[in-house]
Write a structure and sequence with these properties.
This protein is mainly beta and 120 residues long. It has no helices and eleven strands.
């Protein structure tokens, strides 16, 4: 079992910044990738950004140049720095981790989500 602890959501005005954090713990053998997804009301969940164990990053077109994903020194932690926030960024943001557990079986877990609300 893998647990994800998310933090950093909140209410911010358009143009402002927020930083989301997520720490993975539990029966982890390897982490192959960490990422953030979001789901706005009435919309499907979409990828925001992800980072692989090798450091490669991938961003949704809508956040390129505004959001930055990074891993912490412990490699079990991932951050999402969100700048120049727009009302359309309002959503529940979910941390996601993929890899292999201590039983060497692949896993894919998402956190419970943290609300980000951007007011105009």
């Amino acid at each position: 079992q893998v647990q994800l602890a998310e933090s950093g959501g909140g209410l911010v005005q358009a143009g402002g910044s927020l930083r989301l954090s997520c720490e993975a713990s539990g029966s982890i053998f390897t982490i192959n990738g960490l990422g953030w997804y979001r789901q706005a009301p009435g919309k499907q969940r979409e990828l925001v950004a992800r980072v692989t164990s090798g450091g490669s990053t991938d961003y949704a077109d809508s956040v390129k140049g505004r959001f930055t994903i990074s891993r912490g020194d412990t490699k079990n932690t991932v951050y999402l720095q969100m700048n120049s926030l727009k009302p359309e960024d309002t959503a529940v943001y979910y941390c996601n981790v993929v890899g292999y557990g201590s039983n060497l079986r692949p896993y894919d877990y998402s956190g419970q989500g943290t609300q980000v609300t951007v007011s105009s």
